[in-house]
Design the sequence.
């Protein structure tokens, strides 16, 4: 025992040390990373973001230099806080709060303390900053908007915060990320690759040269430029037409699915979200819960489509072979259905009408009749409605369209489940869903879905997924999904009569006064009932004005959907705007200046204020 | 009948292990201390160049040690011990203060730390005393004398202050135990050392509470097992421990001056720790942990080059091994040390003279203590106690002290079969 005790202890020690070394060096890898952070300083060189062009090659977005005041908290020494705050034009409380945030992020690494100085501020600061230890100015590139429109399309960028970094470790504090629109959708392309320099440091945080002679260092790579399908002139014109009105426009080139214009109103200047006033402006936009300017109506607003939907009802009826082209249906001021003789009213027009006339005159009775036949063609209304729904989904309705913008709504096309849930024991009939025939009832569409089905009609039976991207620098092609022709379930031969009907709308129908000289144009008016929840109670407000159109009739160049909130009947506002947009796009100029002046000067602000004025009000005036 | 041979048989295994450790140690000191902007290799302000000089000079020292008769060490052990004590005491008059401790004589450009040499001297004196035919390790009077031999240099060293070096003298408990000292002393020795360090690190009240709780716990357990423990016995032991802790604390806070306390705190890692508790140990763990299987390669350690680990070329040199040579390299170094210690202990056991045996055992125990405390500290297993890693850490006195310690034993062992 006496001979072996120390030997035994020595051997046990050997085992314990081996185990400890194994734990530190092999098992627990966290120490390996810590070492890298500890002894090697990583300095990033942020790249310039890619430019954005419109379809005609005119520059929409480029970059401008910006200067950030940076701080390395633990290097701050002998700071005269009051003088420094005066220099930065910032309150002491705000400054100390920012300093604490920077310290929490890392006492050793640089954090921005005042982002985005103006050139003037930079000029006055750059001479004095070196007197304050621990602070320096870092140059970075910021967005510079060449246009004052299309904020909803372009989206905005912002500096990443800790939440974003936690979710996406590829970002560093001070880096920029696209938050909405194209900036978000094409973030990976626009962003570029940041350069990295590794610098060896000693224990006192002093740089002692490039780490491993810089073999791991990289240069920044500029982001790639992208070209959008947007027509900047048309886009600007669309926003102008929506002065003092709310709603949206979506214009698509039917043959390619390229989005020519995507307008939402109220709109704002994208330049508002750059620079030091950014957060103030953003807060203002964000908290406007009545006009909701950050809400992209073209993509996200779900409205009952109203009469334009009748074109689809007609197409389905023909495909299902429940009505012939020539069959005339009599309209006695409305459609009567159900045991108790309920009536769905219609307006005054000559009667009876065939399909083409039904579309031109927007006859409710005609479409309710053929819709009922479509549903009742099958054994049960469940089968009937699901079959009907199948046709509609082939137009891309009732789901996200899959376009390249990070915002959208599914809209709604009801199915048998919708009504089975609504009526006990699945006990319902086609007439319970009769409003669907005329685009009311359970049907909800977004403006871009309406533009898409209009494009499908213009193409006589197929559509290409709407998209914004036309070209990416150094890329030969865009995504295949944006070239694929989606076939609808309707035989192409049925489209011609519908198109004739839509043409008649302009010739002698509901939009006859909107004809454009020298352009064969097809369209459909719509008036959608509008219920809104205000202060907890649902109220009916003035109808939405809806219009879809495409032109020219043959080889269509543009399909458009316009929505004007509380615009009353279709041709009143939406029809005029659609007509002017088409003329602007095809002709490049406006010949009907009186109509243009009417739209530009027309304001619906009074209408929008009615429900909030606190007084009883009348609608549809 | 004694047959005397003319040729000496040196243990080449020990010599080879010594040479490997010294050269690996130097390679790591080079990595820990070189700078890209540093001067030429032969510039003697470089730490690694100086260490190389010490190593070369130690070879001359070895030749000198081995050239002397084995009998010399036994005969002159008392004188060597006395000289050693005098040099330790002389520090209080002629010593120079380096880093807060008066542990050095500055002679021209060189500085000499007598406490590094005192270990070998004490080992010789202890071996001489224990091997005396008159000494009985079970007699209390003789035990006291043996302890006095150990305690004197330790007592002289503590107020320098250099508690780390003094702590090493606990290692001598092992040879004494080997020579018949009761097991209780072994336990007491370690317990006292643990209490001593513990009190300085966390404070007497905590240690007192800790001891009280442990004692009550053991007492209650024994009572449950119907062993009828004596309350008086337990209370006495607990009180003794607690009063020991408080007297250590009292002496530390009231008898010592601030400069002494500062030095203690530096050695115990309380002072350099400017960035929160355990900075040194933490940095050292990070450095070792970043090594992985094979390390980052010689002179490639980012922690080492960044100078994040304080005292890296001295007490924390093992962290450089861990970072640059990885698990394989540091395991290799551990194995070399263990081999050396075991070799010394095994040879000690084979010695025919009791003097050589006790001395050899002392060498093994001292080397082990240094290795155990140092690597334990660097890998974060123990609290910080600033003592060097034998043959590795930078420092002429340290290297020479260990060289003398080891090679006197090599010389004694070479004469082993003089006595048959």
Sequence:
């Amino acid at each position: 025992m006496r001979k072996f005790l120390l030997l035994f202890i020595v051997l046990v020690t050997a085992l314990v040390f081996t185990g400890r070394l194994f734990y530190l060096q092999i098992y627990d890898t966290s120490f390996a990373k810590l070492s890298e952070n500890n002894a090697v300083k990583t300095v990033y060189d942020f790249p310039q973001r890619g430019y954005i062009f419109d379809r005609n090659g005119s520059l929409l977005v480029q970059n401008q230099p910006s200067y950030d005041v940076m701080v390395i908290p633990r290097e701050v020494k002998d700071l005269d806080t009051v003088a420094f705050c005066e220099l930065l034009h910032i309150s002491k409380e705000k400054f100390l709060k920012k300093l604490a945030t920077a310290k929490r992020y890392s006492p050793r690494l640089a954090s921005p303390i005042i982002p985005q100085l103006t050139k003037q501020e930079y000029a006055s600061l750059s001479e004095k900053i070196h007197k304050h230890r621990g602070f320096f100015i870092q140059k970075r590139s910021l967005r510079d908007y060449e246009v004052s429109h299309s904020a909803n399309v372009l989206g905005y960028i912002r500096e990443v915060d800790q939440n974003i970094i936690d979710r996406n470790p590829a970002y560093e504090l001070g880096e920029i990320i696209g938050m909405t629109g194209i900036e978000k959708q094409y973030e990976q392309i626009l962003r570029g690759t940041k350069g990295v320099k590794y610098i060896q440091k000693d224990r006192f945080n002093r740089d002692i040269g490039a780490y491993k002679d810089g073999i791991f260092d990289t240069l920044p790579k500029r982001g790639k430029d992208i070209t959008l399908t947007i027509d900047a002139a048309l886009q600007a014109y669309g926003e102008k037409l929506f002065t003092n009105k709310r709603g949206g426009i979506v214009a698509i080139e039917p043959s390619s699915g390229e989005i020519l214009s995507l307008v939402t109103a109220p709109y704002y200047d994208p330049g508002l979200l750059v620079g030091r006033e950014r957060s103030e402006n953003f807060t203002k936009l964000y908290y406007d819960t009545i006009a909701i300017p950050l809400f992209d109506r073209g993509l996200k607003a779900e409205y009952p489509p109203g009469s334009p939907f009748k074109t689809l009802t007609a197409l389905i009826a023909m495909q299902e072979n429940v009505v012939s082209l020539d069959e005339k249906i009599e309209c006695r001021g409305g459609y009567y259905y159900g045991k108790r003789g309920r009536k769905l009213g219609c307006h005054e027009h000559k009667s009876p009408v065939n399909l083409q006339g039904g579309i031109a005159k927007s006859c409710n009775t005609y479409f309710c009749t053929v819709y009922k036949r479509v549903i009742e063609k099958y054994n049960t209304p469940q089968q009937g409605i699901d079959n009907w729904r199948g046709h509609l989904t082939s137009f891309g309705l009732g789901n996200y369209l899959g376009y390249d913008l990070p915002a959208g709504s599914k809209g709604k096309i009801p199915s048998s489940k919708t009504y089975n849930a609504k009526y006990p024991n699945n006990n319902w009939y086609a007439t319970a869903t009769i409003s669907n025939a005329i685009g009311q009832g359970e049907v909800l569409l977004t403006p871009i879905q309406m533009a898409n089905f209009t494009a499908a009609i213009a193409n006589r039976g197929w559509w290409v997924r709407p998209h914004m991207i036309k070209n990416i620098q150094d890329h030969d092609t865009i995504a295949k999904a944006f070239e694929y022709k989606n076939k609808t379930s309707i035989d192409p031969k049925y489209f011609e009569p519908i198109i004739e009907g839509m043409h008649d709308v302009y010739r002698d129908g509901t939009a006859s006064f909107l004809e454009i000289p020298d352009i064969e144009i097809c369209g459909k008016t719509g008036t959608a009932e509008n219920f809104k929840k205000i202060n907890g109670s649902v109220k009916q407000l003035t109808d939405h004005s809806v219009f879809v159109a495409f032109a020219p009739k043959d080889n269509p160049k543009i399909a458009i959907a316009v929505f004007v909130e509380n615009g009353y009947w279709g041709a009143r506002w939406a029809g005029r705007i659609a007509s002017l947009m088409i003329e602007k796009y095809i002709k490049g100029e406006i010949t009907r200046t009186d109509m243009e002046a009417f739209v530009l000067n027309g304001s619906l602000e009074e209408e929008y204020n009615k429900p909030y004025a606190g007084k009883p009000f009348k609608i549809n005036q | 009948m004694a047959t005397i041979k003319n040729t000496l048989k040196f243990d080449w295994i020990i010599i080879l292990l010594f040479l490997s450790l010294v050269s690996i140690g130097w390679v790591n000191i080079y990595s820990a201390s070189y700078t890209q902007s540093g001067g030429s290799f032969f510039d003697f302000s470089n730490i690694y160049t100086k260490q190389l000089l010490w190593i070369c000079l130690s070879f001359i020292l070895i030749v000198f040690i081995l050239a002397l008769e084995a009998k010399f060490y036994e005969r002159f052990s008392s004188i060597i011990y006395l000289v050693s004590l005098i040099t330790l005491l002389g520090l209080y008059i002629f010593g120079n203060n380096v880093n807060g401790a008066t542990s050095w004589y500055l002679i021209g450009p060189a500085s000499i730390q007598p406490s590094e040499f005192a270990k070998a001297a004490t080992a010789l004196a202890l071996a001489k005393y224990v091997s005396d035919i008159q000494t009985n390790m079970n007699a209390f009077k003789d035990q006291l004398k043996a302890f006095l031999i150990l305690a004197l240099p330790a007592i002289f060293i503590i107020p320098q202050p250099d508690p780390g070096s003094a702590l090493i003298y606990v290692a001598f408990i092992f040879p004494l135990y080997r020579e018949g000292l009761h097991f209780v002393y072994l336990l007491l020795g370690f317990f006292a050392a643990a209490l001593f360090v513990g009190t300085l690190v966390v404070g007497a009240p905590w240690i007192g509470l800790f001891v009280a709780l442990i004692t009550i716990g053991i007492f209650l357990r024994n009572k449950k097992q119907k062993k009828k423990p004596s309350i008086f016995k337990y209370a006495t032991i607990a009180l003794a421990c607690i009063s020991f802790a408080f007297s250590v604390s009292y002496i530390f806070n009231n008898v010592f001056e601030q400069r002494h306390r500062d030095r203690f705190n530096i050695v115990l890692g309380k002072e350099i720790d400017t960035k929160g508790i355990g900075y040194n140990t933490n940095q050292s763990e990070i450095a070792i942990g970043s090594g992985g299987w094979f390390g980052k390669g010689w002179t490639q350690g980012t922690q080492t080059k960044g100078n994040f680990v304080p005292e890296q070329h001295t007490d924390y040199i093992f962290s450089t091994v861990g970072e640059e040579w990885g698990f394989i390299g540091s395991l290799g170094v551990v194995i070399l040390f263990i081999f050396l210690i075991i070799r010394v202990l095994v040879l000690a056991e084979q010695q025919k003279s009791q003097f050589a045996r006790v001395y050899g055992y002392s060498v093994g125990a001292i080397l082990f203590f240094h290795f155990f405390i140092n690597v334990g500290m660097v890998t974060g297993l123990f609290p910080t106690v600033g003592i060097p890693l034998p043959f590795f850490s930078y420092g002429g006195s340290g290297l020479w002290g260990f060289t003398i310690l080891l090679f006197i034993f090599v010389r004694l062992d070479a004469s082993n079969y003089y006595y048959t």
